[in-house]
Amino acid sequence: xxxxxxxxxxxxxxxxxxxxxxxxxxxxxxxxxxxxxxxxxxxxxxxxxxxxxxxxxxxxxxxxxxxxxxxxxxxxxxxxxxxxxxxxxxxxxxxxxxxxxxxxxxxxxxxxxxxxxxxxxxxxxxxxxxxxxxxxxxxxxxxxxxxxxxxxxxxxxxxxxxxxxxxxxxxxxxxxxxxxxxxxxxxxxxxxxxxxxxxxxxxxxxxxxxxxxxxxxxxxxxxxxxxxxxxxxxxxxxxxxxxxxxxxxxxxxxxxxxxx
Length: 260
Known about the structure:
Layout: E1 30-36, H1 42-49, E2 55-61, H2 69-73, H3 76-84, E3 94-98, H4 100-106, H5 108-118, E4 123-126, H6 127-137, E5 142-147, H7 151-163, E6 167-173, H8 179-182, H9 187-197, E7 204-207, H10 218-225, E8 229-231, H11 232-243, H12 255-259
Parallel strand pairs: 1-2, 1-3, 3-4, 5-6, 5-7, 7-8
């Protein structure tokens, strides 16, 4: 026999149940990334490389499309708020700012302090911190550097890398100011640019900028050059995974992710 329906406004109380919980979809680790507002590259790169059982979570920070020393420095007051929007429940294992030049201009300590303000439980880092760690893990001391930046940024980046103990044999920029344009530079052009910069006395090639699609061709650059090649998003992914205790070796994206 059918039972009578409950009358409107006379709903019963829910029955007590022993709900079962597990570690969630991403119980190995959760990684946080603060992207620039106009970034069109980093998110795809991260999702394409990081294993599916590791959580990747994103926020964005206010940033002008024009990439200059002034606009990069202007991000700092907004970083903490952006970090607060990435899974704000204290479960991130590591968090980073996905911007090479911004990490240098603002300063690694300032970036990490802003991220830690809202994600105190997470290990904080910056993209350029990952680059330095990656180059050192590869044993590189003498490097050539390619960027899409204006020379006002290139000079600051070269000085920073020298301060980190590297001998910068050459640094060349493409004088592209708009971040949106950086994301449209052909990967094959970046491959040729990197190989053009290479020198026999260079230990490694570094192509800087999270907006560039260098990850698509980093393996080919290494194979053709016969030496390690590092690009921003490759180093960033490697760095945050290692900080989160994930030591997976990943094929197809250069020696750094495959061997270290």
